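Both lines are quoted verbatim for reference:

——
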Amino acid sequence: MSAKARVKEYMTREVATVDADDTVADVARRIAESDHNGFPVTDGRKVEGFVSARDLLLADENAPIFTVMVEDIVVAHPEMDVIDAARVILRSGIQKLPVVDDAGNLTGIISNTDVVRSQIERATPEKVGELMETLQHIHDVAVREERRRVRLDNLVPTQDRVYADELEGRRYELEHGLAEPLVVIANATGEKELLLLTDGHHRALAADRLGIEEMDAYVIVVEADEPVTLGMENTARNEGLSSIDDVAVVDYARHPLIETTKRLQ
């Protein structure tokens, strides 16, 4: 049975909020000076409502926010299925859902963009499982999966280039707490464990540029009586890849999918 993606995996955890006693002018200024189009209204961690840019239109600039905010708001739970959150967003016509725990405390916020990303870029258990099956079939070795933190400077990439525009997208996600786990193969070579980065090159490079030293990862551990040389190791060696610093950033072209889409227009 496939694991479902949960809201907590894709929500933004650091949420900008406003107080019920803030004025319309104060909140309008914050919206104008940021990329937000609205804010949850909170009392401590308790969610009291939501105010959007539309709610501020025609309102007296000195009016307190509690007089214009929407009080009866739709919220999500951290354990909620992302697909269910998508249905709520679609049917309600809103762009963002505050995420609250069982006590009604604000724990994050999930947007329609987060929902889309969860479906097209998720490092799913199925993807990890398929890679494990491939390794077992090709190399006739036992493998197991574990979750752990990995140091970026210990990773050996298996992809020689990334795209600048997608790199910027991953940087934005990291800055907003949206990082997905990497997928790494751990292969013992003598006394040293070789960590091959197989999925998440853009995320790893973006994190490195932000000064992040470690990331969460699905680690596929190869268990063999004798050292096994994997095909990905040969690929990395042939491409001269020994660290993520060796990965080139292509800034003169967009991702191939974008180019293809552009040609179709």
In short: The chain is about 30% helix and 25% strand. The first helix runs from residue 24 to 32. Residues 258-265 have pLDDT under 50 and may be disordered.
